[in-house]
Design brief:
It contains 6 helices and 6 strands. By secondary structure, it is an alpha+beta fold. The chain has one domain. Strands 1, 2, 3, 4, 5 and 6 form a 6-stranded antiparallel β-sheet that branches. Helix 3 packs antiparallel against helix 6. It is globular.
């Protein structure tokens, strides 16, 4: 089953997919982490933005590390908890920079892992990017919406 995750913004009345430019600019910083399908698009050319990424590649890793499922809508307080859990977990891996270097140095590493398992194994940078995404969402009262 496919899963896309979309960011929703509380506009004072309801949660909407139309994000203000100020928040979209913060979310654009996540582009550099290489999250699969992550994009920030202008919505109807009216200075509002739409943000989404493919959640399915990350659902297993995120659930194992945070005990939250990307297959559920996630409120800001849950996203904060996910951020804190990822931050604490990543502190345990003092060799994470070496693992990322291996990903960068071995272009076929992703091909190798898909031979061994049908699960997508994200790079450390992708996990760090998701952690930062969850932080930005919490700090800006954003919701992560699961779409199938």
């Amino acid at each position: 089953m496919g899963l896309d995750c979309r960011i929703r913004y509380y506009n004072g009345n309801e949660y909407s997919f139309e994000l203000p430019e100020e928040i979209a600019n913060k979310l654009k910083l996540i582009n550099s982490y290489g999250i699969v399908g992550y994009s920030v698009h202008e919505y109807n050319n009216n200075n509002h933005y739409f943000v989404s990424f493919r959640g399915r590649p990350y659902y297993n890793v995120i659930e194992n590390l945070t005990e939250y499922s990307l297959y559920h809508d996630l409120q800001p307080n849950e996203l904060n908890s996910m951020y804190v859990k990822l931050k604490n977990k990543l502190k345990e891996f003092d060799f994470i920079k070496e693992v990322q270097k291996a990903y960068n140095d071995t272009l076929n590493l992703t091909d190798w892992t898909t031979i061994l398992t049908d699960m997508y194994i994200p790079s450390p940078d992708e996990i760090i990017g998701l952690m930062e995404l969850f932080r930005i969402c919490y700090e800006n009262n954003l919701m992560l919406y699961a779409c199938y």
